[in-house]
Hints:
The complex is a heterodimer. By secondary structure, chain A is α/β, with parallel strands linked by helices. Chain A is 42% helix and 21% strand. Chain A is built from 11 helices and 10 strands. In chain A, β6, α8 (202-214) and β7 form a beta-alpha-beta unit. In chain B, α1 (6-25) packs antiparallel against α2 (56-74), α2 (56-74) runs antiparallel to α13 and α3 (105-119) runs antiparallel to α4. By secondary structure, chain B is an alpha/beta fold. Chain B folds into 5 domains: 6-79 and 670-703, no CATH class; 88-219 and 631-652, von Willebrand factor, type A domain (Rossmann fold, 3-Layer(aba) Sandwich); 223-337, Immunoglobulin-like (Sandwich); 340-539, Rossmann fold; 547-626, Immunoglobulin-like. Helices cover 22% and strands 28% of the residues of chain B. In chain B, the strands form 7 sheets. Chain B has a 9-stranded mixed sheet, with helices on both faces. β8 (238-242) of chain A pairs parallel with β1 (31-34) of chain B, so a sheet runs across the interface.
Amino acid sequence: xxxxxxxxxxxxxxxxxxxxxxxxxxxxxxxxxxxxxxxxxxxxxxxxxxxxxxxxxxxxxxxxxxxxxxxxxxxxxxxxxxxxxxxxxxxxxxxxxxxxxxxxxxxxxxxxxxxxxxxxxxxxxxxxxxxxxxxxxxxxxxxxxxxxxxxxxxxxxxxxxxxxxxxxxxxxxxxxxxxxxxxxxxxxxxxxxxxxxxxxxxxxxxxxxxxxxxxxxxxxxxxxxxxxxxxxxxxxxxxxxxxxxxxxxxxxxxxxxxxxxxxxxxxxxxxxxxxxxxxxxxxxxxxxxxxxxxxxxxxxxxxxxx
Amino acid sequence: xxxxxxxxxxxxxxxxxxxxxxxxxxxxxxxxxxxxxxxxxxxxxxxxxxxxxxxxxxxxxxxxxxxxxxxxxxxxxxxxxxxxxxxxxxxxxxxxxxxxxxxxxxxxxxxxxxxxxxxxxxxxxxxxxxxxxxxxxxxxxxxxxxxxxxxxxxxxxxxxxxxxxxxxxxxxxxxxxxxxxxxxxxxxxxxxxxxxxxxxxxxxxxxxxxxxxxxxxxxxxxxxxxxxxxxxxxxxxxxxxxxxxxxxxxxxxxxxxxxxxxxxxxxxxxxxxxxxxxxxxxxxxxxxxxxxxxxxxxxxxxxxxxxxxxxxxxxxxxxxxxxxxxxxxxxxxxxxxxxxxxxxxxxxxxxxxxxxxxxxxxxxxxxxxxxxxxxxxxxxxxxxxxxxxxxxxxxxxxxxxxxxxxxxxxxxxxxxxxxxxxxxxxxxxxxxxxxxxxxxxxxxxxxxxxxxxxxxxxxxxxxxxxxxxxxxxxxxxxxxxxxxxxxxxxxxxxxxxxxxxxxxxxxxxxxxxxxxxxxxxxxxxxxxxxxxxxxxxxxxxxxxxxxxxxxxxxxxxxxxxxxxxxxxxxxxxxxxxxxxxxxxxxxxxxxxxxxxxxxxxxxxxxxxxxxxxxxxxxxxxxxxxxxxxxxxxxxxxxxxxxxxxxxxxxxxxxxxxxxxxxxxxxxxxxxxxxxxxxxxxxxxxxxxxxxxxxxxxxxxxxxx
Lengths: 306, 704
């Protein structure tokens, strides 16, 4: 079982280094290796394999795999053999609406970049466990959704990376559309990883998540938010323009902050409640901090679902 | 101007550039793009005027600057209301060489050309080239007709000589940048045959250019001409004389004439020329002159002169006027004699006699050094030239003196009459290898090859100073060149005269002695003049040529001992030896002891003064080229076909010169090069740049 050492993990993450890394591949590798290195040695492989048979011990075999109970019972040295599982299907769904373009001054990437990095990191981890990984997203100006069927081949990693690298955030909210595509396209019970800032009215998407739940899919929601959205740290009056609809407002942050934070908290509470009622894991990922919590949540949920 | 010009449309689009840049820079600085603005929808809506200029003066500056730039680059396409289509570009070549003055032909042609330009139509672009000693552009194609007429009327007859190919090349170059549909060269010339000869095989350069030749030459020409004046000093009975000769040539018939010789404006001699009809079977230029009984050929005169003064004279043809007056006067000059000192260490009786006071006293003071007498060198007694025979080099003192004289810049003439190991070693030191034995030709030999351009041989190119070919050699020493220049060779190919590079002083080496056992030269008439010439040369006298033709380029080298920063060239009045009127002085900077300049196109004497000194440092004799007196014409030269002129039938039909102004509204009139040459263009461009610079500085300041 994996045991997280949070202090060690924090040491392993530097937002500046992250922002300097150019490609998704490098970012994901930096993330995954830092994450794995931050765990105590544990039978990580055990979560995706199951016992199949015994064989006689041979010099050179790993002593950890010796069945000591059998030895105690029969005075016979035997090694446990395991069979890897292959029946988990995971879909990565990434929201590319205009609001995902935002990158605050403290962030190591825009919300979309953070989502993509996490998605690639998780993809890498899942493919190591022989899980089948697919992708669903939507890219302007195309009307149709981009869909990559799940596969457990190692080449899938490059396919997904290529798709994610060319992806950019633009346009109006489209999380509802993505969810509808999801419902239509996924028929087998699967794990669905959502990366979105959820900047849409919750009424519109509650039904969609309920449908997914009804269809038996296990959904994990990674809500990617920037520090500026969470804390509204602005101080100077300025013209604010909405990234999705272009609305312009003259804002004096000193006077508007309290109200904003109150409304934002209400918005977050609404989603929190909704996911709680649907029993869907919900993780807020900040673009200015380390994303270990998201990865831990994934591993925990993955183990639970097995 | 029309907006239909592509460049104008493009320019108009450019006006939008500064506006766009300005408005782009107008982007709000305090704009925050934010994803969760919906939580602030109760905040006031910001006034959306992003495209409103932030700084009007800045933007206006930028627009004005850009408009001026457009104006500058469209300037070639602007014109006044009378702008017309250029139908023809025409370049006139006006021949202003001496021969073109035949029967006042130049003035007639010049006036006719001015009238023709004035009356030419608006659709004809006209340029004018004057062909003197060089081709000179008097009016460019874009200068306009008034300027061209003015330039033509200001032309004065010249006496130079130039070749047509230069003028045609210049005209073709002008036409290559012209705008006329037709391109044409009109040659206004007497078409002297010898002007076509140079560069007859030039590659074609008159592509698509029509050539029209006007001014059919006269056929019945009578011309008596003087050319090639030369003067030399003579010593007769202890007095200094000058002998002046001139070549007389005749074309056609002439009446009674006289040749007048003048020295400083004073008539010195007068020679009658018989009418051509009185002389049967005489070929001009080939007859001889004897005792002033003149026939056509060469005329001589002699008179007594003061050798310490300049001899500045002229030779004039008087009598019946002929068709070309410009070649009836030639000028000459002789520099004053600067008496020199020569030290003679030789046993040759001929040398001693030749350098004795009786023979050459007015030019040289001779010091004979007898054998075994000591040679003393002080600043006062040092000679200009040391003359010695090689057998005296056996003495170490003599060898030392020769070396020191050469090191001190003094001249040495060495006659090799004997070769010993010591002498061989000394000659080797001087860059000459001595052979083992002396050579004795089977029969008397003569000079075969002579470096005729060298100053000591140059006067003997004509036979008037005697004939070097009559000199026989019965004996000479075999010398080889090691580090020296051979100046003359025997018939057998052995070098006889050398100039060695042994030091600052000049060293001339003869492979023989002036004794009858070696040569008969001492009894030849060339002996004394040659000896004098050699002594003058090794002394370091200036050898720069002083005979020139009008308009010729001169590279003047300062004589040794002269220092000057500037050279002033002025016309000289021989009567007063002062500055003559009419031509502005030419002032030239001296660089590395040399000055380059071009002479005016007039003939006569020109004085060279160093740093505005009163006295003349040198006098140049500028006379017309004898070729200009050869009035033989070639009105339809085939060389034009070699040059690639258009040969279609229309080539000889000039465009009507009284074309009415075109009604077409717009046209390109100026070429780009011509537009670039206009001051207005530069003013506009400079203003535009200045405005843009101010705008940039202002903009940067505003940004800060």
